């Protein structure tokens, strides 16, 4: 573990994963100067009520970035700012915000010689037909412009690192859930959506027949892995998941258990032409290179999340 860091920049730090990351870094590195940049297009200030550093409104895809940071020289940049709404079909907007924004961050990193850890996505793998754990080096098949933007970011990161010798590490998130996502509304995790339905006494709605499987990763594990990624021995990309593929039926069963309910799913036809039936992260690489092992399986993660949402357990980021 890095013992001391003087300065940290977090883009997208008021969002779901970003705010959890910021507050954890604040506790681990109390002497570090931490600056957050966020355009607040998909964030909420309430997630940062316990944050003690500087927060600036900024669109990192514009030159505004360079004026905002001024003489700030970050040792590490955690780049999470991007459009994360996968239903956005405006290709120019998605590429400009995600890809151009990343290129600006890399330019800043080049000037300050920063280590960069950036958010990639498991969506780059596409709709996997075979039910096998997904390794980082498998063939990519992005099915929408969001996934394509992340795929191009991975390419740009590799080229930039080879050219400059600076370390750039991608964290390829699978299905992250946990406290701090409520502001995302309908774009919050399915676990949160199903929680709300069951909490209100409604039958949880699932696509037929609820046996689609996902690698659900609790946000605390995602944050731990993201912080650890800055210690990678070289520029690379790591899967960030639980390593397990669990069904939506299992999610409903666990939510029923922890909420004291017994509501049967309401199954309906999937309206989407493209829908991932299966995701599972192969976690071998990050375990071998960094020693990371997830602490939360689905049972433990949902139990803690429900306790936070029900006000039984305190968490510094909003539920």
UniProtKB/TrEMBL annotation:
The keyword Cytoplasm does not apply. It comes from the Bacteria. One of its GO terms (molecular function) is ADP-glyceromanno-heptose 6-epimerase activity. It comes from Persephonella atlantica. InterPro entries: Epimerase_deHydtase, Heptose_epim, NAD(P)-bd_dom_sf. Pfam families: Epimerase. Keywords: Carbohydrate metabolism, Isomerase, NADP. This is ADP-glyceromanno-heptose 6-epimerase. Its EC number is 5.1.3.20. Residues 8-241 form the NAD-dependent epimerase/dehydratase domain. The keyword Transmembrane does not apply.
